[in-house]
Amino acid sequence: MAVTNERLEKLREITAEVLEIEPYELTDDGDFVEEYDADSLRAIEILARIEKVFKVEIPQSELPEMTNLKSVYAVVANYAQWTD
């Protein structure tokens, strides 16, 4: 459980930094576009940073699925083959 929380918090940190908000402001299910004014460039930047930090390749075709922190975690976990 601790690894999952650690990874989720790292994803929160990365995403919040790109969205220029504080990590505590980013909820698990807050919509990036509707609640945090994210655009496609920010989405690509979030994806690029996640790939670098977690050393995983995620196709840009997954971006439409990555609408909030929970869905980002699910996509990254799938490609990184996290089993916890």
Q: The CATH topology is what?
A: Non-ribosomal Peptide Synthetase Peptidyl Carrier Protein, Chain A
Can you give the helix content as a percent range? 55-70%
Which homologous superfamily in CATH is the superfamily?
Answer: ACP-like
Give the strand content. Answer: under 5%
End-to-end gap: 7 Å
Count every beta strand, where a strand is a DSSP E run of 2 or more residues.
Answer: 0
**Low-confidence sequence ranges:** none
Helix and strand content put the structural class at mainly alpha
Number of domains: 1
Give Rg in angstroms: 12 Å
Largest sheet: none
Outline, from the CA principal axes? globular
Note the run of SSEs as H and E.
Answer: HHHH
The CATH class name reads Mainly Alpha
Walk me through the structure:
By secondary structure, this protein is mostly helical. It has a single domain (2-80), classed as Non-ribosomal Peptide Synthetase Peptidyl Carrier Protein, Chain A (Orthogonal Bundle), CATH 1.10.1200.10. Helix content is 60%, strand content 0%. It contains 4 helices and no strands. α1 packs across α4. The chain is globular. The termini are close together. The model has no long low-confidence stretch (mean pLDDT 95).
Please write out the topology.
Elements: H1 2-19, H2 32-36, H3 40-54, H4 69-80
Q: Which characteristics define this entry?
A:
84 residues, mainly alpha, Non-ribosomal Peptide Synthetase Peptidyl Carrier Protein, Chain A, 4 helices, 0% strand
Summarize the structure.
With 84 residues, the chain is mainly alpha-helical. It is 60% helix and 0% strand.
